[in-house]
Design a protein that fits this description.
alpha+beta, 4-stranded mixed beta sheet, about 5% strand, about 55% helix, Glutaredoxin, binds glutathione, Glutathione S-transferase Yfyf (Class Pi), Chain A, domain 2, about 200 residues
């Protein structure tokens, strides 16, 4: 399987962490593709009509996207304990955490592009709204994180770990840990798992 993606994309990292956790990382070859909303890439656009990474090319020429669908697929073909619960209500609860993390990531990615824009100065309203969203989501997680360490890893926890890691990678001055000891303590545990260590963000791919 070929994964079109970049080592600086949090969505790609989510897929890679999931692949490690379900024992399929060695079956995935990463093909480096860096894209942004305004920097399109022909191979990525050919694989995914949205022009986004990650996109997974399967040996039968099928292509899968987005990151959640790819994780679903990897979970389905794995013989290891699953990242997506079989129990329907447990799956709903997991999907909510996944959606929160993906929502925060979407905000981060937009905020990062806004910060890099050179044609006009950064909008202070835009920054304050983005900062506010980060605070609300991180506070919400901090209220629950004291019990997370005892729970098995799943796709929702992987997504939250990747979102916080992206906060460190691109927004370290925002210091999401400050005043959130439960969340920081939980992140210290999840981020030392081999799957997270093996997939650290890098700016060279
Ligand atoms: N919902 C998508 C989001 C993926 C995404 O936004 N990827 C970014 C890179 S981190 C991208 O490809 N941006 C280019 C674009 O949006 O056109 C997923 O979960 O895979």
């Amino acid at each position: 399987m070929k994964l079109l993606g970049s080592t600086r994309s949090p969505y790609v990292r989510k897929v890679l962490v999931a692949a490690h956790e379900v024992g399929l990382a060695d079956q995935i070859e990463m093909v480096a593709k860096v894209v942004t909303l305004v920097d399109r890439e022909p191979d990525v656009c050919a694989a995914n009509p949205l022009g986004q990474v990650p996109a997974l090319l399967l040996p039968n020429s099928q292509t899968l996207y987005d990151s959640g669908v790819i994780c679903d697929y990897l979970d389905a073909i794995s013989t290891r304990p699953h990242l997506i619960p079989d129990d329907r209500m447990a799956k709903v609860e997991m999907s909510r955490r996944h959606a929160e993390a993906d929502g925060l990531l979407a905000g981060f990615v937009r905020w990062y592009s806004e910060r890099r824009r050179t044609d006009e100065p950064l909008s202070s309203l835009y920054v304050s709204v983005s900062r506010d969203k980060l605070a609300h989501v991180a506070d919400h997680w901090d209220r629950q994180a004291y019990s997370w360490a005892e729970r098995p890893i799943d796709l929702g926890f992987i997504a939250i770990g990747c979102a916080l890691a992206y906060g460190d990678f691109r927004f370290s001055p925002e210091d999401w840990r400050s005043g959130r000891p439960a969340l920081a303590g939980w992140y210290d545990i999840i981020s030392t798992r081999p799957s997270f260590v093996a997939t650290a963000f890098r700016v060279d791919g």
